[in-house]
Specification:
Blueprint: H1 4-30, H2 45-58, H3 65-91, E1 93-94, E2 104-105, E3 109-110, H4 111-138, H5 141-221, H6 223-271, H7 276-281, E4 286-287, H8 291-311
Antiparallel strand pairs: 1-4, 2-3
Length: about 300
């Protein structure tokens, strides 16, 4: 059996080793370094929690590889499922997605990675954990407690900063989505306004021509008697058409100015510092509410990266 202090130490060590494994796995797949942790520091707490649970529950089965494999596969998969669900509900974002993998559950877990977790835990429990246990017990407990306490303090600070950054990021996504919707509505208004204005002006022109023809026909019969009335009516019709045209143009100009203002705000928001690290660490992350805005930011990051690569 292990003491509470030893479990905390295992958590810190395996959080770091899990981060190392993620970085190596990603480097092999992509050819470059990416900080794959949810936190900014070199830790993946889910690995720490996972191994502590496996050590706590399955140490008595350590010599039975088959039971250890299936037990580890189930425990780590349940942990990953719960973690993915909680993160999605808390931040309205799916940070990883196995929907394209066969035998997945909600995109949170899939058979392929569950098997890998099981195999990894068997290897760790058989080859690595005994050495880590000896190392932990070699460190004097007072010194170890101080080191673990410092590590956990930095974990907590990192977690707080990360959560605050994600919440701020979500507010920016919300504003981007709102501005984008307003821009779309204004574009629709401008287009429909142009069409409606053109139709009204055409209709007014047609009425004006019909009225002019009618008045001219009557004027031929009673030219002197109704000359002033006809001219006044024609002038009134022309004035009304000009006023309507001016009103439509002023309304369109106001909407165009508002659209330009919103476009500038949209670009400014895109230019603000975003949690690029998290989007790189979780390339399949999807926002439950503002995914369109998130994709725009991802496109901006990709374009900036291409430009940087071309300049090198």
């Amino acid at each position: 059996m292990y003491s509470f202090y030893e479990y905390l130490t295992f958590f810190v060590i395996y959080s770091f080793l899990g981060w190392c494994a993620e970085v190596i796995f990603n480097a092999i797949n992509t050819g470059h370094f990416v900080n794959r942790g949810f936190l900014s520091g070199p830790v993946c707490p889910i690995y720490g929690f996972g191994m502590v649970i496996v050590v706590f529950c399955l140490t008595p089965l350590q010599d039975n590889w088959l039971l250890l494999f299936f037990g580890s596969m189930v425990l780590t998969s349940v942990l990953e499922l719960i973690t993915g669900y909680v993160l999605k509900k808390a931040f309205h974002t799916s940070w990883w997605d196995y929907s394209d993998q066969p035998f997945n559950i909600g995109g949170y877990i899939c058979l392929r990675f569950s098997i890998l977790w099981g195999l990894g835990c068997v290897m760790v429990m058989d080859l690595i954990h005994p050495a880590i246990t000896r190392f932990v017990r070699w460190i004097p407990v007072p010194a170890g407690e101080i080191i673990v306490g410092i590590c956990l303090f930095f974990f907590a600070c990192d977690f707080y900063v990360t959560v605050a950054g994600i919440l701020k990021f979500n507010r920016r996504l919300k504003r981007l989505e709102e501005v984008s919707n307003l821009m779309h509505e204004l574009s629709e208004d401008i287009g429909s306004g142009l069409a409606e204005g053109a139709l009204k002006l055409a209709e007014t022109g047609e009425k004006l021509r019909e009225s002019s023809s009618q008045w001219k026909a009557e004027a031929e019969q009673k030219r002197e008697m109704f000359r002033d009335t006809i001219e006044a009516k024609q002038e009134q019709m022309h004035l009304s058409a000009e006023q309507r045209k001016q009103s439509i143009l002023e309304s369109l100009e106001e909407k165009k100015a508002r659209l330009a203002q919103l476009s500038q705000e949209y670009e400014r928001t895109l230019q603000e510092k975003m949690p690029v690290r998290l989007l790189k660490a979780f390339p399949n992350a999807r926002s439950e509410r503002y995914n369109e805005a998130m994709e725009k930011i991802r496109e901006k990051i990709s374009a900036k990266k291409k430009k940087t690569d071309q300049e090198k």
